[in-house]
Structure formats: structure tokens, C-alpha cells
Amino acid sequence: ENRPDSNYYGIQELHNTWTNIAYILVALILCMRQTPKLYQIEDSRRRMISMVLFGFYCWAILMTGITSWWFHATLLFVAQKSDEFFENCAILSVFYMSRKPLCLASIYWTVVHCGILFVGVFTVQNLFCEVHLVVMVLCGLFNLRMRIAELTHGSAVKNEIEQHAMVCAGSFAIGGSAWLLDMFA
């Protein structure tokens, strides 16, 4: 590989390495900005469940940044698998946060699903992570669509959430297309 960013002072993929700072910053900013809003949830049980799942989400995003940085700096297989594991954990936590009703089972199933995910990512070499990620994003978008349908028709909140959902779906389509091109082209 004769790319200009290859092996810059021992860093294998310099530009792919430093761009992971964004994950770390997003995780820290999300945690600082959203955690106070979670304290406003009146139902103490729902507040605790939301805080646990949201805290896990922030941690998974932070670890995605750290392990992706580690992978692109070293190109080690274990670092790649760690990166894949944590990016899937982030998607899982969003999926279980958006389930209805939000209950202790959401935490339980997040832990169980992450345990199964860990085994799959580190033992199945080919495409396990990628297939799981795509399936979970599609399930998450479907789940989001169901939650949006429950909102009052024509309300400003519903319209705003629908716009954000379209951006999410469009981003997934663009990112998925780029990923497929990268894998098969």
C-alpha cells in the first residue's frame, strides 16, 4: 500500500485515525448535554432505565472512537473486531431505548444481545458484524417509524421528528451504498 498517509510515524492510516476524535467528542458532548434532561423524567423507574441505556450508548460511542482509532493506527485484527463490536453496541442501545414500553427488560435484553454480539463478532470472521449492523439499523428505523406514527398528526414535534428520521434513513442509504462500493468495487 503506497498511500501517502500510510505508516506516518508508525501510524498505519493517519487520516482514518485522527477523524475518530469526532466519535469521542460526540460521546462526551451527548453525555454532558443530554444527561441533565434525563433527570427531568418524573417517573423514577423510567428515569433510571433511560439513564442506564443512554449512559451505555454514550460509552459505546466513546469506545467506538477509541477502538476505531486503535484499529486505524495499528491495523490489528483485535482492534478491528473491537471497533465493530462497539459500533454495534451503540446501535443496539438506541434500538432498546426506543422500545415501548421502556422497562427493565430493555436493559436485560441489551446486555444479553451485546453478549451474543460479542461472541459473534469475535468468532464469526466474515460479515457477521456488517449483516448484524444493517439488520439492527433497519429494525431501528422501523421502530422509529412506529413511534412516530403514535404522535399527533400534523404536530410540530411529529413533523420535526419525521424530518430527522428522513435524514437518518438517507444517511443510512448513502453510508450503506458507500460501504457496499468499498467492499465490492
* Sheet/helix structural class: mainly alpha
The description of the largest β-sheet is: 2 strands, antiparallel
Instruction: Count every helix, treating DSSP H or I runs of 4 or more residues as helices.
Output: 7
| Radius of gyration using CA atoms only | 18 Å
Strand content: under 5%
Helices and strands, in order, run as EEHHHHHHH
Average pLDDT confidence is 84
Low-pLDDT ranges: none
- Number of beta-strand segments: 2
Proportion in helices: over 70%
Side by side, the strands of the main sheet go 1-2
User: Which term fits the overall shape?
Assistant: globular
End-to-end separation in angstroms reads 17 Å
Note down, in words, how this protein is organized:
It is a multi-pass membrane protein. InterPro entries: ACER. Keywords: Calcium, Hydrolase, Membrane, Metal-binding, Transmembrane, Transmembrane helix, Zinc. Belongs to the alkaline ceramidase family. GO terms for molecular function: hydrolase activity, acting on carbon-nitrogen (but not peptide) bonds, in linear amides; metal ion binding. This protein has a domain of 119 residues. 79% of the residues lie in helices and 3% in strands. The protein has 185 residues and is mainly alpha-helical. The model has no long low-confidence stretch (mean pLDDT 84). A two-stranded antiparallel sheet has the order 1-2. The chain is globular and about 55 Å long. A hairpin with a 2-residue loop joins strand 1 and strand 2. The two termini are 17 Å apart. It contains seven helices and two strands; from the N terminus they run E-E-H-H-H-H-H-H-H.
